[in-house]
Amino acid sequence: MIVDDEPLARDRLRALVNELAIGKVIAEASNGREAVAMAQVHQVEVVLLDVRMPGMTGIEAARQLAALYPTPILIFTTAYGEYALEAFEHQAVDYLLKPIRKERLEKALARAQLLLEKPATAVDAPKPAARTHISVYIRGELRLIPVNQIDYFLASQKYVTLHWRQGEILISEALKDLEQEFAGQFLRIHRSALVATVRISSLLKQSNGRTYVKLKERDQLLEVSRRHLPKVKKVLKDMRIPGSS
Predict the structure, then answer these.
(1) What are the pLDDT digits (tens) for 90-133?
(2) Contact in structure between 147 and 139 (CB atoms under 8 Å)
(3) HSE on the CB side for 137, CA within 13 Å?
(4) How do 133-138 and 141-146 pair as beta strands?
(5) CATH code 3.40.50.2300 region(s) in the chain
(6) Left, alpha or beta for 62 (phi > 0: left; psi -120 to 50: alpha)?
(7) What pTM does this model have?
(8) Residue 86 near residue 144 (C-beta atoms within 8 A)
């Protein structure tokens, strides 16, 4: 499957694939959401996936494609080299810079073909690594926010707000998925809050009987629910955070 928001780019890739005769293009998509839907319908084996697309980006689509079974092999295509690291964190087998040369595409498809002929078993399949950055759109521009600069995630109804050192922004990701991906880095303190453990400075019990975490370099307090308090105390005690004893 070829995924790119530019029709001319899709046409060029399709022509190159046909010339190489390594596999066959059975589906095309113009954005990430279409890609995820078509991958399930057509059960594609390899996805040539553009990174920068409107709506759902290629990086975001890769996270959802990774949940499919069988999981398609990803080859990222883009004009922007700065996304290479994050692409490989999503288990991409290659990263092709536009304009894509026929020789590079041939090597990438040959590598994918080898993996298809000798697939990894469930036992030795590597667990996807947690991202080092989260992709977001800020004023229409795709940006990568370093995970180590994120203070906490806060859920409200159907939305999750990412709070980081330069501000806050809504993201289209579920809190439970973030908790699973970043286990060990972020701590669930409430059903609606996930906090970076390294950013917690203290645990405070107020006169109203409720308990809160105080974050470094931030004034606001984040409430810890009674349900999550025992685990929070245990984790923070191991870190020797004040107030956790």
Answers:
(1) 567 888 888 899 999 999 999 888 888 865 544 444 455 577 77
(2) no
(3) 12
(4) antiparallel
(5) 2-117
(6) alpha
(7) 0.54
(8) yes
Which tokens sit at 56? Answer: 């759902």
Q: How many CA atoms lie within 13 A of 185 on its CB side?
A: 17
Q: Which residue's structure tokens are 């809050």?
A: 193
Q: How confident is the model at residue 87 (pLDDT cuts 50, 70, 90)?
A: low
- Phi, psi dihedrals of residue 158, rounded to the nearest 5°: -100, 5
Residues ≥6 apart with Cβ < 8 Å to 37:
29
Complete DSSP assignment for 174-240: -HHHHHHHTBTTEEEEETTEEEEGGGEEEEEE-TTS-EEEEETT---EEEEPTTTHHHHHHHHHHTT
At position 8, the amino acid (one-letter code) is: L
What are the pLDDT digits (tens) for 177-198? 899 889 889 999 999 999 999 9
Residues of the chain with CATH 2.40.50.1020: 133-238
Q: Both tokens of residue 147?
A: 């995970």
Tokens of 64: 């959802």
What is residue 36's three-state secondary structure? helix
Amino acid at 241: I
| C-alpha R_g of the chain | 21
| C-alpha 33 chain-centroid distance | 14
Which superfamily does 133-238 belong to?
LytTr DNA-binding domain (2.40.50.1020)
Tokens of 82: 């700065």
